[in-house]
Amino acid sequence: MPIPEVPKDVDWREFFVEQLIRLMGVSAIALVLVMFLFLVREGVPSLVEVPLSNLLGQRWYPTFEIYGLMPLILGSLLVTVGAIAISLPLGVATAIFIGEIAPSWVREILKPSVEVIAGIPSVVIGFIGIQLVSPLVRQFSGAPTGLTALTGVLLLAYMALPTIISIAEDALDAVPDSYRHAAFALSATEWQTVWRVVLPAARPGIVTAVMLGVGRAIGETMTVMMVAGNAARMPLGLDAFLRPVRTMTATIAAEMGEVARGSTHYHVLFVVGLALFIITFLINLAAALTIFRQQRGGGGRFLA
Amino acid sequence: MSVVERIGRAPLLRRLSQGLLLFSLPFFLLVACLGSTPTEPSTPAISITNVGSDTMVNLVLAWAEAYHELHPEVSISVTGGGSGTGIAALINGSTDIANASREMKEEEFLQAQERGIEPVEHVVALDAIAVVVNPNNPIDQLSIPQLSDLFTGRITNWQDVGGEDRPVVLASRESNSGTYVYFLEQVVRRGDPQNHELFSPEALLLPSSEIIGLEVSQNPNAIGYDGLGYVTPHQKTVKVGLDETGPFYPPGIDTVKDGTYPIARPLYMYTRGEPTGAIKEYLDWIVSDDGQRIVAELGFVPLSGS
User: Fold this and answer.
1) Residue B219 distance to chain A (closest CA, Å)
2) What is the mean pLDDT of each run of 10 residues along chain B (306 residues)?
3) Which of A30, A45, B83, B211 has the most CB atoms lying inside 10 A of its own CB?
4) The complex's ipTM?
5) Which of B102, B12, B28, B10 is nearest to B65 (CA)?
6) Residue B201 with chain A: CB contacts under 8 Å
7) Which residue does chain A place closest to B221, by CA atoms?
8) Model pTM?
């Protein structure tokens, strides 16, 4: 059957829309690039003004020109890793329950409810953290104060959960039913099917979910600033979770307002932003690579 | 500056009330327009922006409201964020008045002058910095050297200053706070310019007076410091003495006025150049008896002349 000829004016409209979409796509990338260049431009002068040994130091005292970034970077990593360690098993388990086990009417209620959690403003979570979680952490852990890394970790885990659950559940949902049917046909139990067939097939999607959860946790500002105590100490040693911690985001938020434009402190804060940008970029890159591999590999067989 | 960052630096409750005030302003204006005779529009002709110290923000808000009632043609917008924030805004040219609970630093003066701004200092009130502990803490008095030992981290157990066997938790403001700088210079470094000691890295840097108040009222290990106007009944103020032998004085209007309470300071407003017109009238009114009456009502210390 011959393909019907496209009328001329439709052809022209097609071209227009195509170009518009291309422009939007390119400008999104250009914006990120411009942002990166801006961060570099504002941050690089500090590399001249501040010796590298100072920047890599262990104390952050910007009022007195001590700009050691290590406590901030390690602080951000500590709360992020802690939050993911809690929210990964919990989130994936919830996703399995919602996607594979719960009857469909339960699923219809649960999934939107989980997504509502994502909409709670971080100030509100921070407030709950100060009033409720921090006293509990102090009483149960015996730490001197409740404003600790652990308090931040618990709240960040809670905030990363909806992202992880929602995307992991989408990934489970995308696994073709034929996989499950094949497993059942081999007389696999429900659990064996989930654990050995569905989960490996959905693995790239779950990795993406976790990556986005990491992004949520590392970028969170308000909650951490309110509950983690913001003491710029090196978070090393076993008790680091029960001690206060200062993250990169909280530092930028707390200090950007006070600095005069063009001062050394201002430039160093941009270096902090640059470090944060690079870390989140790497996380997003890892997530993108996973999706890419998933598309090329056709399901999860290569990764499982 | 994104909204999140601004909220981040300003005390939550105050920020909320300011937000409400802002949002409700159009309604008030509407009501005012409807109420008055329609021939005379009641939109304010002069606006003054006022940014800075979180310690002062309630006081400055009260002044702004009272002054607006007296002079409806003048509207004054007040924002917190910290003394450093206010001074930075003055230098960047984005505010008429900067509120500061500390003096401007040398380098801030130079930065202002580079931009052709000559900051002029006005003392508008006095403030005692109260040292607060949990009401269950048996400690009643501390000397400046003891406070310095506590806040630099040399003393980490309450036992060493005569208290219970508990770890010490330090609750401090963020470094953009004028109270932070004042406390560092006058207490941690004991007023000695040669002293370069710093706050202990273990000290909690909390984003607002309210959060310091919360931590101190919840945690029996905590010690904090804040403007006297922010002390609530859930915190206990400690008497402060210059050295171990005392005498020790509680913070209060009389002990600040007669100079016996050792950690009291002036509160400042900075303008770009000598103030003129509406800004000058406003500042004159602040130091007048009417303006200073509000100072006492909010728990600060009025200037001694009035």
Assistant:
1) 7
2) 39 47 47 44 71 87 90 87 87 89 86 87 89 90 89 90 88 84 88 83 86 89 87 88 84 84 89 87 88 86 72
3) B83
4) 0.75
5) B28
6) 59, 71, 231-233
7) A144
8) 0.75
